[in-house]
Design goal:
Blueprint (H helix, E strand, L loop, with lengths): L2 E14 L2 E14 L3 E5 L6 H8 L8 E9 L2 E2 L5 H10 L1 E4 L3 H4 L6 H12 L4 H14 L5 H5 L8 H14 L4 E5 L7 H17 L3 E6 L2 H7 L2 E6 L2 E7 H6 L4 H8 L39 H5 L5 E2 L5 E2 L9
Parallel strand pairs: 3-8, 3-9, 6-7, 7-8
Antiparallel strand pairs: 1-2, 1-4, 4-5, 9-10, 10-12, 11-12
Bound molecules: adenosine-5'-triphosphate and magnesium ion.
The site of adenosine-5'-triphosphate (ATP) has 12 residues, from helix 1.
Length: about 325
Amino acid sequence: MSQLLEIEHLNIRFVNGGKETEVVSDLSLSLDRRETLGIVGESGSGKSVTSLSIMRLHPDETTRIKGAIRFEDKDLLALSEREMQDIRGNKIAMIFQEPMTSLNPIHTVGKQIAESVLLHSKATKKEAMARARQLLELCGIPDPDQRMKEYPHQLSGGMRQRVMIAIALACDPELLIADEPTTALDVTIQAQILELMKAIKKDRDMSIIMITHDLGIVYDFCDRVVVMYTGEVVESAPVKELFAAPLHPYTEGLIGALPRLGQPTERLSAIEGMVPDAGDMPQGCHFHPRCPYATERCRAEHPPLTTLPDGRQVRCFRGKGEQ
Ligand SMILES: Nc1ncnc2c1ncn2[C@@H]1O[C@H](COP(=O)(O)OP(=O)(O)OP(=O)(O)O)[C@@H](O)[C@H]1O
Ligand SMILES: [Mg+2]
């Protein structure tokens, strides 16, 4: 497998009335071709901000981005807006949590998918409409001929998300970024959309970044996972290894908070405490106020992200066997 995406030392700051807040710090990650990478972390950990920076969707005036985001060896941060537009539709596609905000309410579903096809190929209008119908069918939408003529508000949430997936696939992307694609849906529909995404992953030569706060989805869907906390990577590992032996206490907490089959549904051990505010980070390790293993050193020193001999990464003094 060769590398498709490589993010190096990414720093993202938001500027607000002369005040800068760092929300992503020194984030590095890579993605191979055909690999599915999960990015997991509680609300506010910087998952969406990171994915929006890959698409370069942050406004220049209010955002300071440093580092490199290399895609097929081009640094996306150095491209012109025009070049970036080309990448956005043709090479990288994104689906969001709330499909209604990304669909145009005044155009039919058929027209919106066909437009995406037209933008990215030399198809005629008629061919684009035929392709749109095919994509709807591929995304498991019943009665595609009827759906083509309908408007987004006439569809259920699950159907709208299927339409968003169809639009994303219209350009045959090399990388699909899915930002919490199932969070807004009820549990049965969540499972169906995840099944659809699995089928697509199997059929296509595509890399996927799946952003979620749900480690269960990561377990089910991803090859490798990056765990984020307060804008930093705290652990990265192949999914099976992470579940077999989490190295960071935060990951351990996330796994402990997963509901288990055959056990009472109340959470067995949710992580206590709150994620600190971006403008009010604790000294030392950002996780120490919530960590059951925290020592004096954790309160004083910020642990670096360490790569272990087997390639796993962890940002914790214990992970290096130094406890
Ligand atoms: N445009 C913005 N201006 C200022 N701060 C922002 C902006 N967008 C996000 N943030 C802050 O950046 C941090 C990371 O936000 P982000 O949306 O990436 O979190 P997330 O991990 O995607 O969370 P969630 O699971 O809730 O989607 C948060 O503290 C958020 O308040
Ligand atoms: Mg988010």
